[in-house]
């Protein structure tokens, strides 16, 4: 059996030549998103992070023109691209900042996917083209002040009043909330024996408010809000007609978690790149930091963990495009990749020493952001229990 004997030249930023596993079109998608981030995000992201503010509408229109809002959905103005394309986009977005990827992820994988998958034709026609173009902003209301990992115990209530629905309650930690034009809201429809129902809620509906959450130490370059419902009256056709229970919101979370599997690798990659550059430029004891064995050991571990995570993300993307993904498989990806990327960022900070906490470098910003990514859309513990149940058949959630 013949064996190839001419390996490709060494690429220090892609030691395993993972690039060869991507098609030319996939690389083009990745490169176009990276170019947009380099031009429109990188010059401003540190200031946005320090200010705790983000020009969401301007960015949404830019991302709409780029075609990344709901890019893995088809019809209604959505590009209909592959799961791998979407993953590569998420990776490049989060290489700039987790808050940027969150903006796109919440818009496309939560708000838009919910309407695309569960909405009526009228709801789709009304909202999806505007959301895909970035002319409207969407948010997704599931988490509550007292119920995060246990959404089945939510206290937000929807009750029938004639042909209408009336919402009362609150949601917490909602990305895009205070700038959104439409909110997908999940509520306990008490008169239907507590079953969870989903609603499309225009944010100009009387009784709806969304105060922004301030003083965050993480995801500062992201708009995060409460959602408050004070007798919010909705027409009967505001409800998703064909989904009841947690199947609806959990299907949306699987879509968003898939993007996180890729995005976390982008944040880790940016931190590794910063550590490699710094270690070759910074001299101590007469030679660059990169010349010390302990430093090289750290870099080797970081690179290997990120390459492993990249291969996992790509494998899950190929599965999603071919046969689909099970929630347990998405849990494996988030459980592994976010934890690995966070450890990469922490290790990169040690290589940069005191400079690692400076805004001149992206490392501490990425580490702070990933502390949130570690626990949102399923805490690391909940994903561990999901994997454990898949392995043993025993439910340890309760």
UniProtKB/TrEMBL annotation:
Cofactors demanded by this protein: FAD
Domain (Acyl-CoA dehydrogenase/oxidase N-terminal) ranges: 23-135
Tagged with keyword Transmembrane helix: no
Keywords: FAD, Flavoprotein, Oxidoreductase, Transit peptide
Keyword DNA-binding: no
InterPro entries, sorted: Acyl-CoA_Oxase/DH_mid-dom, Acyl-CoA_Oxase/DH_mid-dom_sf, AcylCo_DH-like_C, AcylCo_DH/oxidase_C, AcylCoA_DH/ox_N, AcylCoA_DH/ox_N_sf, AcylCoA_DH/oxidase_NM_dom_sf, Glutaryl-CoA_DH_mitochondrial
Domain spans labelled Acyl-CoA dehydrogenase/oxidase C-terminal: 244-391
Limits of the Acyl-CoA oxidase/dehydrogenase middle domain: 139-232
Superkingdom, natural source: Bacteria
Family statement: Belongs to the acyl-CoA dehydrogenase family.
Protein name per UniProt: Acyl-CoA dehydrogenase family protein
Record organism: Ammonicoccus fulvus
